[in-house]
Amino acid sequence: MSFLDDKTWDEMDWLNKAVEPYIFSFNQDLARLPSEYVFSYRDFESFIKKSRYQISLPIAVEMLCSKFDVDYSHIVEALDKDTLFRLDMDLGTTIDIQRGTIDGKLSLVKLTTSLSDEQIRDMLVRLVDHIFGYSSNGVQTRPLKEVMDIVGCQEAKKSNSTRKKWHALKMYMSNIFRENTWNIKNVDLAIKLIQWIENYCRTESRLSLANLSKLKCMVHNGHPIYSMEEIV
């Protein structure tokens, strides 16, 4: 058994190997959420506490996911919620705070059971931007150069500006996910890759460097990447 073995790929049937689908734990969670959830007055009281009487889609999605134990906090800033859910209120719906009742219907409608390949790639691009951040504060030049060498980012390598290098790396990794250049089909692993890069550049975590290096080696295996035994 090789250090770079992909057990999930090895165990996949021929059909899945031919299709090469993305796998993503959030897709499984999304599929088990109800197609429509009708909010009660007690739910509305939670709205009041969270959003000062404003009924918004982000708060509604947060409440629904909380009710069904769906943790999406690590991707919340990158999800395009408008393509996944719709907040509906029947015409003439009234909310009586004194009586504690809702006359009519306020509901959250699920628009899809899973993210499409395009939605996943767009989400990963936005996640790079969110995790890397705009500022290069805290980014250390030496580990940043190491990462640029490992991933193959040539842009701004000769620049003396850490900010320019950091921005170049962010754009480079965004394009990798946009074009699926590394063919990483496990979305949770792709998210870890972003976190390993950011963590090593700011904290010089040796584990982050080791896992980044291992995953980059697996890119040359010649097949999609579905799993990697993480170094801990």
- How many structural domains are formed by the residues? 2
Structural class estimated from helices and strands: mainly alpha
Number of helices: 10
The first-to-last residue Cα distance is 19 Å
For the largest beta sheet, what order do the strands appear in spatially?
A: 1-5-2
> Helix share of residues?
40-55%
The average pLDDT score comes to 90
Radius of gyration: 21 Å
| Assembly state of the chains shown | single chain
Order of SSEs: HHHEHHEEEEHHHHH
Tell me the β content: 5-15%
Low-confidence stretches: none
Shape: globular
Sheet having the most strands: 3 strands, antiparallel
**β-strand number:** 5
Features:
8% strand, mainly alpha, 232 residues, three-stranded antiparallel beta sheet
